[in-house]
Design a protein that fits this description.
This protein is α/β, with parallel strands linked by helices. The chain has two domains: 193 residues, 3-Layer(aba) Sandwich (Isopropylmalate Dehydrogenase), CATH 3.40.718; 132 residues, Isopropylmalate Dehydrogenase, CATH 3.40.718. 41% of the residues lie in helices and 18% in strands. It is built from eleven helices and twelve strands. Bound molecules: 1,4-dihydronicotinamide adenine dinucleotide and magnesium ion (MG). The site of 1,4-dihydronicotinamide adenine dinucleotide has 21 residues, from loops. Magnesium ion binds next to helix 8.
Length: 339
């Protein structure tokens, strides 16, 4: 069995962490045929389009993509190719696990949070207006029943399948009565169908505080696009930072696996990036493909390498380069599989 997968190396640290990830995937023995495509700033600079049609066609053909981060200009310039990709392919569920690893110098040791972020609408719907004469700017927070039902059901289903105990819906329904109110209401409608899961809700600002002070009290979170974006970086910070948290964008037909982090221009091209986040995304891809043994081997090897603590990258206080870490992890994966 050979899997044909779309590969987007991405911008900034993307090519470095993707290289490292391919090395680790290679060690699993699973066969991949990579359909390499270019998006983001790299595609914009060469062809004027950050999300060329060829990229979409490739993912439609292959159904699955492994993706490095794509740079988006801040405040001006083209719309995020990441957001466009998620909307075009209807990848409505952004799944972001935040799990403690040994030796990360994180504040906590036993965090196991699973965030489900709505990925196609909310404030990222792209409905924006600027009235230049009056200097008034609007970004519309578009929430739909269909969009809310599918992400909330997805979260309940996944949480159930993964034997989790509790799902917390995060919102701002005290102020955003229409959008937040509908999202929360739909959560309450669906919850009785899943009596084995404890369902509750939190207002997002309180949730941010609770996650910093009592993260162990939480299990799974489902929330709208912007809140999920912010809380998943916060949760990454609880377990060692953006260098260690992987993610997946899942729809009914396609899936794109990418880390929570961006292109990290401040450290790009220096061999400093921690590829663990990208590798954990690839681990999620292996699981999605049904390659459970390979996924487990990657996970086991990551925990082993972190527990040993000798080959960690600079973000975690180590001195290994991206490729040194990858080489060490790849050989640990290979021996885990051989054992
Ligand atoms: P960022 O996630 O790229 O970086 C934030 C901080 O975390 C930086 O100090 C960076 O050095 C560090 N960091 C991130 N990943 C790391 C890793 N693997 N190892 C070690 N340190 C790491 O966020 P920022 O700086 O806000 O955004 C940079 C660019 O990335 C922007 O153009 C943004 O639009 C884009 N971006 C793309 C995403 C995607 O492709 N899914 C997601 C988030 C941002
Ligand atoms: Mg983000």
């Amino acid at each position: 069995m050979v899997y044909t997968i779309t590969l987007l190396a991405g911008d900034g640290i993307g090519p470095e962490v993707i290289d490292a990830t391919l090395q680790v995937l290679d060690a699993t023995g699973v066969d991949f045929d990579w359909d390499e495509q270019t998006a983001g700033m790299a595609a914009y600079e060469t062809g004027g389009d950050p999300l060329p049609e060829a990229v979409i066609e490739s993912i439609r053909r292959n159904k699955v993509a492994l993706k490095g981060p794509l740079t988006t200009p801040v405040g001006t310039g083209f719309r995020s190719a990441n957001v466009q990709l998620r909307q075009t392919l209807d990848l409505y569920a952004n799944v972001r696990p935040c799990v403690s690893l040994p030796n990360t110098r994180a504040r906590y040791e036993d965090i196991d949070l699973l965030i489900f972020r709505e990925n196609t609408e909310g404030l990222y719907a792209g409905i924006e207006y600027f009235d230049a004469r009056n200097q008034i700017a609007d970004s519309i927070n578009r929430i739909t029943r269909t969009g809310s039902e599918r992400i909330i059901k997805f979260a309940f289903e996944q949480a159930t399948q993964m034997d989790r105990e509790r799902l917390t819906l995060v919102h701002k329904a005290n102020i955003l009565k229409e959008t937040g109110g509908m999202f929360l209401g739909i959560g309450r409608e669906i919850a009785p169908d899943y009596p084995d899961l404890t369902f509750d809700d939190r207002i997002v600002d309180n949730m941010a505080m609770q996650l910093v002070v009592y993260p162990e009290r939480y299990d799974c979170i489902v929330t709208t696009n912007l809140f999920g974006d912010i809380l998943s970086d916060l949760a990454a910070g609880l377990v060692g930072g953006l260098g260690v948290t992987g993610g997946a964008n899942i729809g009914d037909e396609y899936a794109v696996f990418e880390a929570v982090h961006g292109s990290a221009p401040d450290i790009a091209g220096q061999g400093k990036a921690n590829p663990t986040a990208m590798i954990r995304s690839a681990e999620m891809m292996l699981r999605y493909l049904g390659e459970k043994d390979a996924a487990n081997a990657v996970r086991t090897a990551i925990f082993e390498v972190y527990a040993e603590g000798e080959h960690l990258t600079a973000d975690l206080g180590g001195s290994a380069s991206t490729s040194e870490f990858a080489q060490h992890l790849a050989s640990t994966v290979a021996s885990t599989i051989a054992a």
